[in-house]
Automatic annotation (TrEMBL):
InterPro entries: Bact_solute-bind_prot3, Solute-binding_3/MltF_N
Domain spans labelled Solute-binding protein family 3/N-terminal: 36-259
Upper taxonomic lineage: Bacteria, Pseudomonadati, Pseudomonadota, Betaproteobacteria, Burkholderiales
Protein name in UniProt: Amino acid ABC transporter substrate-binding protein, PAAT family
Species this protein is from: Paraburkholderia tropica
Pfam families: SBP_bac_3
Keyword Secreted carried by entry: no
Range of residues in the leader sequence: 1-25
Length: 282
């Protein structure tokens, strides 16, 4: 009876005994236990994640990447549509497991979340009216330039244009509309979106062109929660397996490749971000 009392006292004190409540499983175990990977994706940004006109189901490059990663993890993909500015907060709050939404690496983001290996690099470019086609970035010094709120496009403005005044909007369409309406002198977005917009308005009074000098070159990766090494390792293994099998290039070509309206050629490979040469934005 006395021994039982001593053991009980030790358990209460936490001395020399295993904890009464087991530690919370790591994120990878949670995901596998649920049988689903919740991916934060864009709600309506072509060609990354947007609703199909007929089925209303989300489709796009990021949807395919999320689905492929989930398959490699042995679970199903669950898509959670997010606004541009909600990507990091929703990941930090744990409402999504990962973010696959054309997410560029920045210093600030790297202090808040973890990043997978980069699976391609993109350019942030300046879109201007056709009358300004011959101008260089320096010619827009001190002028108003629009971009989507919470994007690296917005962050690139003061970095690439001296005294550039960033005017941000809730989404990319609104930021471009500001250029059309003459409220700003330029509009910054990623190269793919810029190419599509330029083609759509070509031959009209509102025709635009892409400035020859890029604003930034950015590595794109999967956003992950901090301090989850198992999850990060699993995602990186999935991305590298996709690279080796050619699956990553197939996904890229389907949405951005030479036969699409963006006509891009993938020259990047899945690579750890610390092995890339680029100037990260804050």
């Amino acid at each position: 009876m006395q021994v039982s009392k001593v053991v009980f006292a030790m358990l209460l004190a936490g001395v020399g005994a295993a904890p009464l409540v087991s530690a919370h499983a790591d994120q990878l175990s949670d995901v596998k236990g649920r049988g689903a990977l919740t991916c934060g994706v864009y709600s309506n940004v072509e060609p990354f994640s947007y609703p199909n006109a007929q089925t209303r189901q989300l489709e796009g490059m990021d949807v395919d990447i999320c689905t492929a990663i989930a398959k490699h993890l042995g679970v199903k993909a669950k898509l959670e549509p997010l606004a541009v500015e909600a990507r990091i907060p929703q990941l930090k709050l744990g409402r999504v497991d990962v973010v696959v939404a054309n997410l560029a690496y920045t210093k600030t983001r790297a202090g808040q979340i973890a990043f997978s290996d980069a699976y391609y690099s993109t350019k942030e470019v300046l879109v201007v009216k056709k009358a300004d086609a011959g101008k260089k970035l320096a010619d827009f010094s001190g002028q108003k330039i629009s971009a989507a709120d919470g994007s690296t496009s917005a962050q690139s403005i003061p970095l690439s244009i001296k005294n550039g005044q960033a005017v941000t909007f809730h989404d990319t369409s609104s930021a471009f509309l500001a250029l059309e309406q003459g409220k700003v002198n330029g509009f910054v977005t990623n190269q793919m979106t810029a190419t599509k917009i330029a083609k759509q308005v070509d031959g009209t009074a509102g025709a635009v062109v892409i400035a020859t000098q890029p604003m930034l070159i950015e590595p794109i990766a999967v956003g992950l929660r901090q301090n989850e090494p198992g999850m990060k390792d699993a995602v990186n293994k999935a991305l590298n397996a996709m690279e080796q099998s050619g699956e990553m290039s197939q996904i890229f070509d389907r949405w951005l490749g030479p036969k699409t309206q963006y006509a891009l050629t993938r020259t990047d490979k899945v690579t750890p971000i610390d092995q890339l040469k680029f100037t990260p934005v804050n």
